[in-house]
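job 3f2a | input accepted
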Amino acid sequence: HILLRKLKMAKKIVVCATQRCGSTMLLEDMRSAKVLGLPEEWFAPWSTAPAETDYAEAMQKVLRNGTGENGVFAIKLMANQLFQVDARLRSVVGEQEGFATNVHRIFSDAVWVRILRRVALAQAMSRVIAQQTKVYHATQNKADTHFAGGVVRGYDASYAGNTKYDFDLLLKQFLKVQLENAAWDNFFQAYEIEPLTLVYEEIAAQAPSEVVAAIAAHAGIDAPTGAYSRKLAKLAGQISAQWREMFYKDLYARKFEV
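job 3f2a | predicted structure (258 res):
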């Protein structure tokens, strides 16, 4: 297949993530480096694509969108997109059965980078707050533009002031975080992949150049020299601290019966 041959010719980086794990910060670092492709959730539009969509053509568009000037392609793939994307790719690589087999086949020679958030409850709270506020990202300065969706220009610490704590919603998202991480665990085990694993809480404290250097080394790409800063602001605040205390109080009161 022409498309598969074209994919084989390009160096590919797949960033494996879960919602609200800090992956957008990681993508900002990669895009700023200008040698690690143009990663984004390029598969996201597939979830609402019409039934007659030509996915070979759609994959060509994904390839174009994610490829930088040096020919390196990069994409972010969320665990909750994995099975739907795999189903769409059947018409591209042929009917394949198994655990996300089509995803693996089309990216069989890719470099895999996984980003995890160590504190699952913090990730769950981030999901619920984002759902309630519709704010998924914020830049540090109002003048800053950004490639990510759901971005508010200029961080305001009071943005989550009208959110409402809900134990059941938090518990649901907490469990979903665990299941999505388990899906990636199973994917890597099934195909004997050893990804570069990055932890959000660690890389958030590092300079972007350090993060880029680690990914570049894993991908066999020369890292750029020089430093650059991040435009995104960290959204966690007092609300998260309050919700954490309330969640564990409720959990103890229920004697961990959920």
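job 3f2a | Residues 79 and 183 are 7 Å apart (CA to CA).
job 3f2a | closed
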